[in-house]
Amino acid sequence: MAKELVINQTHNESRVALIESGEMLDFLIDRSSTLKDKPSVGNIYLGRVLRVLPGMQSAFVDIGFERAAFLYVDDAYIPTLDEQREMAKRIEEKEKEEARASLSKTIPDELSSLSETVDMKYRPDIKIQDFLKEGDEILVQIAKEPISTKGPRVTRHITLAGRHIVFMPFIEHVGVSRRIESDEERDRLKGILESIKPEGKGIIARTVAEGQSHKTLKSDYSLLVKIWKDVQKKLEKQKAPYEAHRDLNFIQRALRDITDEDVDSIVVDSKSVQKQVDKFVSKYLPNMKGKVSFYEQDIPVFEHYGVDIEIERAISNKVYLKSGGSINIDQTEALVSIDVNTGKYVGRKTLEETILRTNLEAVKEIAYQLRVRNCGGIIIIDFIDMEREEHREMVFTSLLEALKKDRAKTNVLPISGFGLVEMTRKRTRDTLTRVMCEPCPYCEGTGRVKSVTTVCYEVLREITKTVKRSNGARVSVFAHPEVSAQLTSEDFEIIEAIEENYGAQLVIRADNSYHIEQYEIFAHED
Fold this sequence. Notes:
The chain is an alpha+beta fold. The chain is about 35% helix and about 25% strand. It contains 15 helices and 25 strands. A 7-stranded mixed beta sheet has the order 7-21-22-20-19-18-17, covered by helices on one side. It has a 5-stranded mixed beta sheet with strand order 3-2-1-15-16. Strands 4-5-6-9-8 form a 5-stranded mixed beta barrel. β5 (about 60) and β6 form a beta hairpin.
């Protein structure tokens, strides 16, 4: 199956799509006009603590941007070496218990924050005010970029990601990506990592480390150590806020993080980006040499590969399934709700079979949409109710399998008695809809406006209130044309009754510039 990385550059917008056999596995977009537009994941800053919040067990940190960064206690506390080793034992015991109980299924990302690698739930009972105070200068790293009105989230658990490994200067830990399933290969990699890392440091083998030699991993580690030493040297004479390390740019991060050994080609539609890609490939991805090509056709590259159509589907609330069914996706600040419907699909045999087939088809589309949209936080999936336990198990198993393609960490609970699946998905950047869309200026993002009839009755109540106080004065009403039209037609008898009862003269005028819910009522004192 052909696997291609397609890169599109339009002025200051960069778009990257990973495609396999016509299916988009991943999509990334960046619209930074300069590298310093925003704090990106992986950047390291010397920050100053602005405020410690004991009630929230968190702190705000000035890292040099308009919005202060948010630091939670679990990301702020760096345990001692002895505490780390004790926590590692507890985590191992806990994982064994959960594996036996099989209560949930977790599909981790190899670049999870350190508070997940060494689970800080088992840290000593310590409060943030015990080790952090206002004015402290601390080294932090961006763990989550600014989203909506929120500032970036930061951590003191520094990680430096290379092509094959992740280096952790403050936490002692040896790990291997769980996407590497072979026990023999995992043991081999652990042995190499143990021989490379010094005491008190941490190192994790990424998925692409599978099959790599000791020399390759050692070279990657040495490069990351050099970067860390450079960071420390920069900090010797600096004061907060200060940017100590900037991670790779958008295109380079995409090449590093989503270009695996299975990618057959890299297609680029910009000469300047092609030079950048060639340079990066030559230095870090030698196996990709000769696989970078320039796209020269008249049809835009994303249109040629069908990516533009998929993006349009990914910013729509309703997504249709091939069978005729559909899924509705509604995103709020912290929760995503997904509803599965049979739609036009009526099946060929029984109702139960129709429901099962629709749910199974929806599973693949849901996993795909979560990746493309970069949905995060709590996700609730409302599958069509299934009576048979074996059908529910089939759908749940299919969902877990579909989520294996996702690079983000997901945690999924079994289908409940109400046919709901509760899951979480880690998100480190803004959702696709927030990047590409903005709230409707007419409805202000609610998705609804009051009906003309509702507005008319509001106007009539306000008119009555105004004429009672005006003692027979002339009253002018300015409203949207549709509201004005109904007031002077269907509701004209009510207008006449008000004039007669209160001795008022009502003048109703239409104004095209008015919002449908907007109106103004003036009483003339002449």
